[in-house]
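Appendix B, record 7
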Amino acid sequence: MSIVMKNIRKDFGSNEVLKDVSINVEKGEICALIGENGAGKSTLMNILGGVIKMDSGEIYLDGKKVGFNSPLESLEAGIAFIHQELNLINDLPVYENMFIGREIKNKKGILDMQAMFHDTEKIFKRMNIDLDPRTILRDLDVSYKQIIEICRAMMMNASFIIMDEPTTSLTQPEIERVFNMMNTLKKNNVGIIFISHKLNEIKRICDRYVVLRNGCLVAKGDVCDVTTNDLAYYMVGHTIQTKRATGKKGYGNEVLKVEKLEHDNIFKDISFSAKAGEVLGFIGLLGDGRSELFQSIFGADGISSGKIYLKGKEVNIHSTTQALKKGIGYLPRNRKENGIIKDMNIIENASIVIWPKFAKKGVIDKKLNEDMFDRQVKSLKIKVMRFTDSINELSGGNQQKVVLVRWLLANPDVLILDNPTQGVDVGAKEDIYNIIEKLAAANIAVIVLSSEAQEIMRICDRAIVMYHGRLQGEVRGETMNEHDIMRLATGGELGYAEVNK
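Structure tokens (predicted):
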């Protein structure tokens, strides 16, 4: 059985989103669908999933021409679409989530909880999932929620599953859990379309790849025949820089210093400093405490003991408002939940932190606001139609750039970036790295928290590795490598020769 999409075209007004795109996917294979944000991936899959209609083209399912006018029609044909925003309810147990929208009822019209429980047990057993169906969903990590969505698809006898960025918010152990599930699906002859920006994951889990750029099919083939650099080139149309820039200027004075910070059992005995113009990385594994540490420094959480100094003066920060006033900026880990403000438009999201700069007698000078934002849009190559459009209309990479504009305009002394490239494509990622370099060149002390060693090595001057809430060691400059970072992140130590090489 196979899916064949031929000569698919789709326009939104004058914007040609898909231009004669043809792809095919077989059962029992994992096919990567990749491209920059705005390349047309989601539109193509929304057509296959019955969410939107194509303007022209043909879809064949096992040789038979089909057309889907709704997601239900696509699902009934055996195609399940697992969106990045999971459609689950945290306050319900797992087995009730499995049957949302198609609950089992007895002859009296009452929910048959026992039947739903037993059917959930059966599908978990079939898919080798060790999970109690009575568990309340909010008690599970994100990977298990992904797995529940996959099991829902299998319960509806899906022959093909579209997975949209399933690993974006997952830690490495969680990713392993989802990959094991995908391999089980493959063995059960289920075809998977895997949308992802993580090229290393594509190399590891996928059989074939299809690349879209500006609405056109630009490359396809077997994953074993290409490198991640090849895939990145196909996506953006030019070579991506993979090594850290050299020849940086010297740093300025010490801007941030902390001494012996502790908070409950989350982090202990934390001491470090950051200088103006420096990009300092923090990395570790799940539970290392780095996010909690910098949330406390930013005033979003408390500190049990220790001292914080800004430009040589001790400060007491008890709120994020105080942190902002003292020159600390913070880009949070989860852009969709904590970074963007969904009810505001693009320019409001970019400038909310610095509205007082544009205010005259309490009234915002819109012209000044727009002029400053327009300069940043052009400088950072942010793709926007109108400044007053909803922030939700932008791709993930462009949303992240808009959030970064806040801090370019605010010009803080210290800027903390927690996973700044989470969920963005390789082109947008490189743009964000360039923004970080601009921030450092403007004498801002930039602190980057990341789970990706390659990212730390690419952008940071030095990096501190955390392990179970403590500082385990430091790597720096051209000598940084994944081996040393992983050794420290798992509780090991570097010898004298390695530290001083």
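Remarks on this record: Residues 496-501 have pLDDT under 50 and may be disordered. Residues 268 and 470 are 6 Å apart (CA to CA).
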